[in-house]
Predict the 3D structure of the following.
Amino acid sequence: MTHLIPPSLECLMLRAIAMPADTNPYGKVFGGWLLSQMDLAGANAATQRARGPVATVAIEAITFLHPVNVGDEVSCYAQVTRVGRTSIQTQVDVWVSSSRVGHPHKVTEGLFTFVAMDENRRPRPVDA
């Protein structure tokens, strides 16, 4: 995926503004906060595909490309990339818009795996 054009709006799963409380000691947005936003976005896409609750079971290949600043509008785009019997894998790309830069740019990407859960919090087939 290119770093110049954000994904389509149909893949937009979460949008938030980075706040001062989300920063690390160096004044940049803490990677853990960004990771949690990505997890929420990936879970949203997986929940839609599973038609029910999911649980995060793996986070792979996180790449932090650029720092995020306080006040940046953070947009998390997620797409389902693989569906197994009980699992769903999503690619999550994070883009920011800021008045400092003037155009959206990709800051982080990662691969998340979720498992579809039944009412007893046990794995269930995705298409069940």
User: Anything to note?
Assistant: The chain has one domain: 9-116.
